[in-house]
Structure formats: C-alpha cells, structure tokens
C-alpha cells in the first residue's frame, strides 16, 4: 500500500510540475456578502480550483477565515462523506461552519469551528455539489484513489492561490466516509513531502468514520440490541445467520441472498422506520445532514418516511443570488443536491480497510484522533473503539491517558483514551453521526483540544 502511494505521489509531482500553474490570489474568489448574512469581521472566499491538465475537472471550495487573528490560526480542511456528499452543504451550512440558513436569512453559528481555525470546506470528488467534470464519462466508476489524487492536486493549487497559508499548520478533519478520504489523502501528502515539502500536516481527526468494513458494520447489531432497538432473538440471527457486513456486500453486488433479506426485514421491522438510525434519540431529521450517511445503510424497503418538513440548506444553496455570491454554477445538473445525482462511486471501496493507513500515518509522526457521537448506530462507537485499541496494540503504543471522562462546560462531554500521545479515541456524549450538528458545544471543545494538543478537560 505504501509503495502504491509513493508511485501515485511521484506521478502527481511530475504532473503538477508540468502544469506550471501559478494562479495569483484572485479577488474574484472573495465573497463580499452572502444573501441574508449578518455582519461579520472575518473574510470569506469561494470558487473553483482546476485539478486536471485539460481543466475539465474543477473542485468547489468555501473558505471561512478565523474570526480572530487568522494570521496565526491553523488551517483545517473539512471533508464530508457519502461517498459523494457535500462538505459545503453538510459541513459548512449544517454543522460547523459560521452560518446556518433560516428561511431567507443566515444566522450565526455560535459554535462555528472558525472560532479556532481557518476552515476550508471542499466539495469532492467532481460531481459533488458545485464541483464538476465537463467530461461526463469521468463520473462512471470514481473510486478512492481518484478522489485522493484530485484532493491532493486541489490542495497544491489552493496553496498557490493562497500563498500566505503555505507554511501554516494544517489539519484535516471530517466524518463518515471521510474515514476513507482523509487517511488516503494524508498518506499521499506524507509521500509527496518526501520529494517536496509543501504540506505542514499536523494531525487528522476522524468522526464516526468507516475504517474497517466488517468491524464497523457488524458492531451495529450489538448497538441495536444494547439500546433496545431489537430483540434477543433478532440479535442472535443478526450476528450468526447474516451479519450487516455480509448484507451490505451482497446488496452492492446485486446478489442479495434470501436469508439475508429475511434477517434484514426482521431488523428493519423491529428498529422501525420512525427511528433515526444516525441519532437513535432524535425525533425528527434534517435531511441535508443525514443524506451523507444513506450509502452506509442501503434501503431494502423503497418506501421512506420523510419527517423533514423543509430543508433549509437545499433551498438556500439553490437560490441564484446565493450561487452568484459564492461564485458557484451548476454544470451538467439542474439543481444543487446534498449528495450527487450524477456520480457513480465504486461503492465496494467500502470494503477496503483504511485503519492500516491510519497506522502508517501514526508511524510517520502524524497524530490521529478518532471520535464517535455515541448516539450513532450506523458507525457505532463500539466498532471504532475496538479498531483504535487494536491498532494501538499493533503499534505497541502504551496508554498515556487511561479511559476517563472529559468535560465541556459543567457537563460530561464524553469519554476518552490516548495511546502513546499520538493516537486518541473520544466519544461525544449525546452526539449523532454528525456530531457538530447535534452537539455543537461539545464538538467545538473536542476540536479545540485537538488543535492545541492539550488533554481534554478532566474537571469543570
């Protein structure tokens, strides 16, 4: 795997050198003011970065500088999952960006992560959100390798456009299928730096991430059972007759067996379509936030109960005045969607483990945080905790912070454990699959500790 990454990095180095692109900081990318936006003191930019020689593919970004003293704050690249879902729509405008749509207006998010960092949200790969390929054939069979390569080229070009961030401390954070995107991108960056050091990568944070298919997906049965969503008998058949990883593998191969179909029918019946699997305590959903997770839960039943009265983010980003303010355009589609309607992602990439890539990063000196919203049954904390513990054992990392509680404000924020000062696991109490949306204050507290490298608070 490392040899493959080095080969890819070498080809990218040659490609980037041959392109010779030296785009100046473009005034056209500066966002003067978004429609309905309250007055703010920080700068915003958004626009496109071309990522191929023929300029047929361009990735769209939204960048919100830090609220205070951006010149000294780190740079954080945020990636949402799917695969194929928007970091602008889900991340920036629903989770940890500076604003959230409310009717015709934007309201401030008091727990925005740009309180602590310069936040760069990237819609990737091409075909997601406002990102596009003018060659539609690209959309067929996009995979993890293609995504990682384009993301690397994007960052190179973005630094050329924003040279003041060239040597800035850089972190990458994200959630869900970004458990594939982020380690693969970070590994390419480490390999690329051996030829030309341009990425000052200081750490990665992975929220409710897909890291190892069988462990992550099969932990769902225990989570359902322990939270009262399924019976003892259904738990037994869900762990012995047909587990969830087998079901998903069969589903995406169009080879669903009768036995798995019967098991999942029983699981679906007991868990109920009226319970949000991404936050088992939530009564209602926000569809723009949850759409990125649907690929992780293929639907056996075509009928869906939509309890979302309105999707503010979708409405806002489909306004022409908003698109003009963002310097965005629709290419090959008639509507902006949270998750791509044109991208045909290689979904069996789900089965490729990335926990081993996380191990390579730790051995390279890159700190890694894996965090879990503890109300998520899609990628439950039990699977993530097992994988982190297993990796720590493989790397022979001693426990440097024993499993303990951490606080945000005067409440328990979650639990944490740290291995060798390099590999960390943390839960966010009461949080869903999309932790910054459901527990914004606790997520911001965890993010702050991650950036500073300080232990999570033991007391209040």
Automatic annotation (TrEMBL):
Sorted alphabetically, which Gene3D superfamilies does this protein's record hold? Answer: 3.40.50.11320, 6.10.250.940, alpha/beta hydrolase
What is its subcellular localisation? Secreted
Q: Which InterPro entries match?
A: AB_hydrolase_fold (IPR029058), Peptidase_S10 (IPR001563), Ser_caboxypep_his_AS (IPR033124), Ser_caboxypep_ser_AS (IPR018202)
Q: Name one Pfam family in it.
A: Peptidase_S10
Annotated GO molecular function terms are:
serine-type carboxypeptidase activity
Q: Name one GO biological process term.
A: proteolysis
Q: Which residues cross the membrane?
A: none
Broad class of enzyme this protein falls into: hydrolase
The EC designation for this entry is 3.4.16.-
**GO CC annotation, single:** vacuole
Q: What keywords tag this UniProt record?
A: Carboxypeptidase, Disulfide bond, Glycoprotein, Hydrolase, Protease, Secreted, Signal
Family of the protein in this entry: Belongs to the peptidase S10 family.
Q: What does this protein do?
A: Probable carboxypeptidase.
Q: What is this protein called?
A: Carboxypeptidase
